[in-house]
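Chapter summary example.
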Amino acid sequence: MKPFDLQKALAGEPVVTKQGDKIIQLHYFPNLGSEFKVIVHKEHSFSIDTYKINGMYGERESQLDLVMEYQEQWANIYWDDISLKAYIGDIIYSTEEEAKENGKGANYRTTIKLK
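The structure predicted for these 115 residues follows.
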């Protein structure tokens, strides 16, 4: 999980709670008279919740806190016959299927998920 970043969230980067609830709307109200200036609507929820600008739901860390959604990344592994070493290809893909589709050639070995 990547820490919550209000500026990135406002720019449209995906946000979830630590327990995995997807945030479908996020609004920032800088002039609210409360420290809870971020209002969110979660997917599959009929209510809204308020958060601090650091993504905290309350005073203590919880599974309801906001984090930036992790985006999967995939890469292909190739084998260098001269050095006898494996190496990661130059292109990073957003899906496993896309990586495998482009992982062609005699030196291609496998596709891995990056963390």
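To summarize the output: The first helix runs from residue 6 to 10.
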